[in-house]
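User: My collaborator sent over this chain with a note saying "see what the structure looks like." That's all I know about it. Can you take a look?
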Amino acid sequence: MSFEELLNNLNPEIIGSLKRAIELGKWPNGVVLTEEQRKLCVEAVVTWERGNLPPEAQVGYVPPKDSPCGDKDEAQTLQWISVTSG
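Assistant: Without extra context I'll predict from the sequence alone. Here is the result:
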């Protein structure tokens, strides 16, 4: 089964289970996820959500700000600090 075929078989319940496994670092039966399994779960969740949910309902969504950080008229000075080890 290809990754695309796997994605086509996912549903909100399975995605919720994958999210929980990622969050806890283990499967529902208590077996710890390997790093590869965790990465594949994250990829599956993100890919499925991108195709099935509006942006504001997806994991990691950050709403746009009404205005950029700081005032446009306010001059901002950047001061570099030299750090020496010793």
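A starting point for your reply to your collaborator: The chain has a mean pLDDT of 86.
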